[in-house]
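Suppose you are handed a protein chain with no further information: no name, no annotation, nothing but its sequence. What can you learn? This example shows the usual starting point.
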Amino acid sequence: WRSARPDSAQHFGITLHAGRDAWFKTGDAGAALDALRASWGDYTVPPKDRRTLALAEAMLTCYMESYGTLATQGMALIAGEEVLFSPGRSYGGVIDARILLLGPGEEYVNDLKTTGMPVSGAFLEQYQNSDQLAGYLDLVENNGGHPVAAWVDAWHVPRSGKPKPEHFSLYGPIYYGPSRRADMRLVRGMKI
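A reasonable first move is to predict its three-dimensional structure. Written in structure tokens, the prediction is:
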């Protein structure tokens, strides 16, 4: 049995995803915060849980102020959060963002990860072998895209105090070559 209501960590992550998605789509801080608040809804935080609406707002604000819009980073949004499926619908996922790097004109899959762990090299290196990210590259290709690699947008949820710019890290590009992705497809096929 599983509750239809997400636990506080899931709800917090879903809310931050909604805010960042609106930020990427509009570049408007007010619209991003409105989307975050709408996603939060009437959720009641369990007693003593640090993941409050105020913390979510502070994290999104710190991120927007630290990184700026995609345009100021030399990027453009191809697509925000979208659900994609493989042919035959045997595999699917929610792609957080498809980003175009403007200089070289390269497409990247971007995945937002929120964590209570410090965003360290060890935390980020786990994505060098991520079946999820390799699968997202396959899904985007299967649906007409041409991704070169993946990026992880990692957000540390502080245990106390206010969010700081160092709580955020954009990690990548993470390249998954054809043979590596083929191996990961085999493993993914065994899980389904």
